[in-house]
C-alpha cells in the first residue's frame, strides 16, 4: 500500500465518521418534527369542539344583545314621554305659578310700603333703623 492509498483510506474513514456524527442530529430533528406533527394534529382535532362552543357562545351573546337593544329602545321611548310630559306640565302650571308668585310678591311689597308710609305719617319710627334702642 502506498502512502496515497493510506491517505485515501484515512480520508474515507473520516468522511464516514463525519456522516455518522451528522446523522445523529438529523435523526433527532426528524423525531422532533414527527412530535410537532402529532401535536399539531391533536390541536387540530381538539379545535373543532372549541370552535363549536365559541360559535354557541357568540349566538347566545347576540341574542342577549338583541334583548338589550329592545330594553334600550323602550327606555328611550320612556325618556321621550317623560320629556314631553314635563314640557306639558311646565307649560300648563309653570307660567301661572310664576305669575301668582310675582303677584303675591308685588302685593306684599305694596303692603309693606303702605305700612311704612302710614308709620311715617303717624310720627312713629320703625324699629329697623334704630339699633340698640328700646321702644
UniProtKB/TrEMBL annotation:
<dbReference type="Pfam" id="PF06103">
    <property type="entry name" value="DUF948"/>
</dbReference>
<keyword id="KW-1133">Transmembrane helix</keyword>
<feature type="region of interest" description="Disordered">
    <location>
        <begin position="116"/>
        <end position="135"/>
    </location>
</feature>
<feature type="transmembrane region" description="Helical">
    <location>
        <begin position="6"/>
        <end position="27"/>
    </location>
</feature>
<protein>
    <submittedName>
        <fullName>DUF948 domain-containing protein</fullName>
    </submittedName>
</protein>
<keyword id="KW-0812">Transmembrane</keyword>
<keyword id="KW-0472">Membrane</keyword>
<dbReference type="InterPro" id="IPR009293">
    <property type="entry name" value="UPF0478"/>
</dbReference>
<feature type="compositionally biased region" description="Basic residues">
    <location>
        <begin position="125"/>
        <end position="135"/>
    </location>
</feature>
